[in-house]
């Protein structure tokens, strides 16, 4: 199940700029055309404060406040591409942030459950989901390290901040064969795929990464 954005009232002036960005992503190795198509249609500028909106279609991470960032478009595309390899329906995202990654995912999978520890960021993200009429994103304010066990098991889990170790409590919220995509490490990080195999898991390193650290607790 996929969903199409309702862009009424948002304006299409940046569509050509988004197409240039997507062409760069294609040149950098993104191969999933469904992901690229969704990123053309998703207005990244609405996920940033007005002062930074003019930089929305640069392939770079940008600050969104509270020492957090909106991820680089390449890494959003790459993580989404990796998630889709297992054809998931129900996906858990840990770290809603601006809401951009969840909005991309929501157009490609059936349900997105997203957890954010910083309440003001979550409130802004919820308003963006509503603006885009994304009705298959369910979000809550909580400690991401706990996940969202009430709605488990998930076909896939995506983490948008880097833990130093694989969080086993979250692996347990995956279905058998489900996969977690996460940046893993401290000073040196790697984009990693973890696949649940019974009471154990398999781990595969994909490429270097650079994310904010995954932190416990909640901020109101």
Topology:
Layout: H1 15-27, H2 33-41, E1 62-65, E2 68-70, H3 73-84, E3 90-94, H4 100-106, E4 111-116, H5 119-131, E5 137-141, E6 154-159, H6 168-171, E7 174-185, E8 189-197, E9 200-209
Parallel strand pairs: 3-4, 3-6, 4-5, 6-7
Antiparallel strand pairs: 1-2, 7-8, 8-9
Helix pairs in contact: 1-2
Can you offer a commentary on this structure?
The chain has a domain of 147 residues: Vaccinia Virus protein VP39 (Rossmann fold). Helix 1 packs antiparallel against helix 2. The strands form two sheets. A seven-stranded mixed beta sheet has the order 5-4-3-6-7-8-9. It has six helices and nine strands; from the N terminus they run ααββαβαβαββαβββ. The chain has 220 residues and is of the alpha/beta class. It starts with 14 loop residues before the first helix and ends in an 11-residue tail after the last strand.
Give the second-level CATH assignment, the architecture of the domain at 63-209.
Answer: 3-Layer(aba) Sandwich
Computed CA radius of gyration, to the nearest angstrom? 16 Å
- Under CATH, the homologous superfamily of the domain at 63-209 reads Vaccinia Virus protein VP39
Structural class of the helix and strand makeup?
alpha/beta
Instruction: Extract low-pLDDT stretches.
Output: none
Provide a concise account of the structure shown.
26% of the residues lie in helices and 27% in strands. It has 220 residues and is of the alpha/beta class.
Based on the model shown, name its key terms.
6 helices; Rossmann fold; 220 residues
